[in-house]
Amino acid sequence: MNDHIQPDGSEHEHGALGDAEYAEFMELAAEEGFDVEDVEGAIEAAGHGPLPVLAIIGRPNVGKSTLVNRIIGRREAVVEDKPGVTRDRVTYEAEWAGRRFKIVDTGGWEQDVLGIDASVAAQAEYAIDAADAVVFVVDAKVGATDTDEAVVRLLRKAGKPVVLCANKVDGPSGEADAAYLWSLGLGEPHPVSALHGRGTGDMLDAVLEALPDAPAQTFGVGVGGPRRIALIGRPNVGKSSLLNKVAGEERVVVNEVAGTTRDPVDELIELGGITWKFVDTAGIRKRVHLQQGADYYASLRTAAAVEKAELAVILIDASESISVQDQRIVTMAVEAGRAIVLAFNKWDTLDEERRYYLEREIETELAQVAWAPRVNVSALTGRHMEKLVPAIETALAGWETRVPTGRLNAFLGELVAAHPHPVRGGKQPRILFGTQAGTKPPRFVLFASGFIEHGYRRFVERRLREQFSFEGTPIHISVRVREKRGKKK
Length: 489
Known about the structure:
By secondary structure, this protein is of the alpha/beta class. The protein contains 14 helices and 17 strands. The protein folds into 3 domains: 125 residues, 2-Layer Sandwich (GMP Synthetase, Chain A, domain 3); 158 residues, Rossmann fold (3-Layer(aba) Sandwich); 173 residues, P-loop containing nucleotide triphosphate hydrolases (Rossmann fold), CATH 3.40.50.300. 35% of the residues lie in helices and 20% in strands. The longest helix has 18 residues.
């Protein structure tokens, strides 16, 4: 690691900036004509760190996805009048009253062979496990059902803060129906119409009171505490086999019989002389008649594991073409802001032709994570397992790295001078200065004289990676444009 780069494990009063560095930076901002409050707001917004997680749970057809769409302000979660609807994505980012948080949507219910109660409970468990607070949605018109009561018992056991949403209260006449839900023992029912927006503001105010400003750090507890590694990938890609191989024993049941499901397993495993906590997300197998639902469960469990982890080892079956599902899992880990290692399994089974085409697929299908360390392994034989730990350590180092503001601005000055932004509409915007607002992952805020195009931002990110060894980590770059100064009267 370069000597001018410092891993940053703590947050100062001014985000990632120390007092002296902050004072120097604000002086620079003032010289360039930026308002102090504007600069402080940009640094705070860019350096928020991990966002608190809110789980939306409830039985089928109570309006969970409609509520999610209402909260995030756009129609993104799939809404349909029947249970069993699946969606590719289960996490969204939302904002209310200036505070940002993540939502885990647990729609997509289905009545499987174990019964609807089991389906509700299973999804609720996964979501609650990853959440800092829960919105429990109940249909006020129907009232509390046996399934609702089962979920209440689950919530009490979990001990997470709960906001009770009495949905489908479209007018004053429905208020009495909502009042009956006091009987659930979860406190005040908030009467809401997710469809029309009635009462959602008051409910979200209660959500903000329940959510922590920042989620508890559940990983890296104390100096030398075990780092949390999520082992993720498509069903049957070899996650359990890989976990057993790195553990050196049969810790996890490996079963190719369709229909095997079980709880996620957290395993303390010594690898490369270091103890790691592996969060295994295997165990979801495709049932032929419940294929869509099984995929949805897998996505939900993967999202929960990634939220709990520092780094994701994404296992990909090298013997098969890189699939859309592989790409979605990669995107999920990137959007969660986790360090990433790509592990291509079954490498020992590939012939020269397959290896050639796989390299082409990686270049095109996984271009968004070209920066991630890659290992070619065999979970069955243990081939190249010794390369896994160095790749993990490299990615975590990049994830935690902070560049001092002075060094960053020297780099930006040289970059802008050598490669200025293209002229657009007769104007040439310039990056004036910047700072790293946070780590885990690295988050930068750049201050500019005008709008910086997406292509130029990608160029700056690429050069940042080259210069400061940000390998294996997403980088978040936000740009704040200097407002035009008003003419003096």
